[in-house]
Write a structure and sequence with these properties.
With 178 residues, the chain is of the alpha+beta class. 21% of the residues are buried. It folds into two domains: 62 residues, no CATH class; 99 residues, no CATH class. The strands form two sheets. It has a three-stranded antiparallel sheet. Strands 5-4-6 form a three-stranded antiparallel sheet, with helices on one face. The protein binds zinc ion. The site of zinc ion (ZN) has 8 residues, from helix 3.
């Protein structure tokens, strides 16, 4: 926790010494920097403030997603940063490999072999006090969905694993007292 103080000439504005920036900042300026750093198009000079919990608190975002993936243009499948994401999800290379698998041939006209089969997957998670789920029609693995959620959600995320339908029915019986 930083130590807060006021300047006589700036009453009612809390200041503190920021360790990351090695500078004295007002809490307002700190929160503004944190907000500016949290968007995908953020200027590189804001990078120090990205994912800073103190900045998040000063911006009033107590429950902000602290993941380093947050608002980064990262491909959910290969985890590389991309200049642009197709459908806000995949890099151009992964999108092209997927397309080749869907149509059954690559640019050379031969059968694609590089990409493992893609399957429909869902993931459930809690964020901002709400239960959400995400389904990707063609995904490589569960990690692809986890990376996408961490990248795209503004609030911190807790993942849950959806039980088999049989186990869910059993749980409902317990919860309702039989
Ligand atoms: Zn990719």
């Amino acid at each position: 926790m930083p130590v807060y103080f006021e300047f006589a000439e700036l009453p009612c504005r809390q200041h503190f010494v920021c360790d990351r920036l090695r500078a004295t900042l007002s809490t307002d300026a700190c929160g503004d920097r944190w907000k500016a750093a949290g968007v995908a198009t953020a200027n590189a000079r804001w990078i120090t403030c990205k994912n800073c919990r103190i900045g998040a608190r000063h911006a009033g975002a107590i429950n902000a997603n602290p993941s380093p993936f947050r608002a980064v243009k990262i491909c959910a499948r290969c985890h590389l940063t991309a200049s642009r994401l197709i459908a806000k999800h995949l890099c151009i290379s992964c999108y092209n490999r997927q397309r080749e698998q869907v149509v059954g041939k690559n640019a050379k006209g031969t059968r694609p072999v590089k990409l493992a089969p893609l399957h429909r997957r869902s993931i459930s998670y809690v964020t901002g006090g709400t239960l959400k789920s995400m389904t990707v029609e063609r995904s490589l693995d569960a990690m692809e969905l986890i990376v996408a959620v961490l990248r795209d959600e503004a609030c911190s995320v807790q993942f849950g694993w959806q039980a088999q339908p049989g186990a869910r029915a059993l749980q409902q019986i317990w919860e309702t007292g039989g």
